[in-house]
Fold this protein.
Amino acid sequence: MLVKGVLYVVATPIGNLNDMSLRALDVLAHVDIIAAEHVQTSRHLLSHYSIAVKNIKLIALHQHNEKIIVNKILAFLADGKSVALITDAGTPAVSDPGAILVQQAREHEFTVIPIPGANAAICALSAAGITNPHFLFYGFLPTKSGLRQRELTALASLPYTLIFYEAPHRILESLSDMATILGGHRQLTIARELTKLFETIHNCRLDEATGWISDGDHRHKGEFVLLVSGRQTQEKTEISDQSQQVLQILMAELPLKQAVKLTAEISGDNKNTLYQLALSIKKQP
């Protein structure tokens, strides 16, 4: 039993139509209005599940008209109508239209109910074999290389797995910028055409990615999810003989803490490890 005057945020399949949830089907079959990214695409989805649309009003809500159409949908909600928000594929408002509508609905104190389902980023992450439990979902990078490199520079120091979406016509340029800014040594998972016939999940170094895509006739096609390993923060724990010698020389002339600080700056070795070494040297007869 659906609640009137409620906005349902309904996830739809990202490829394989069998990924539609029973709860999502029930909502779409019984709401008064469906706000869809592209009406014709949504008609195909509804027809596949034999959901009759004669009693359901379909209206378009996409990135170019969302700000305009929001007030119309708010009026429907105020009139006690139930509204389902869907996009062409995946979860609305996540790198897809809908966030403005959800924000306005909540600000006007309408109930917003999420109907979970497919999401390309989580789908790719679950099958990538990445053991780092922390990740940052960025979505689409800027289309221009200069802006894209600036964004990547801001992300370069983060230790989390970085998740991006990318379109086929920009994939090679984006991967090239990633290798330049983030470093070609980082591990990359390329996930394309997820849940579809030509689904591909490939692991490689970031500096090998453009070559792998260029080697295949169809590897540059489809929608991409890119998962890039975060910056490694492993600290050096072994002190070289040369660093030990520098430390001993400085300790003979300077206070212990200052000698440790300068040795760390000169050698790049871990400051805490050097401090423990300095203490042991000091205790020697």
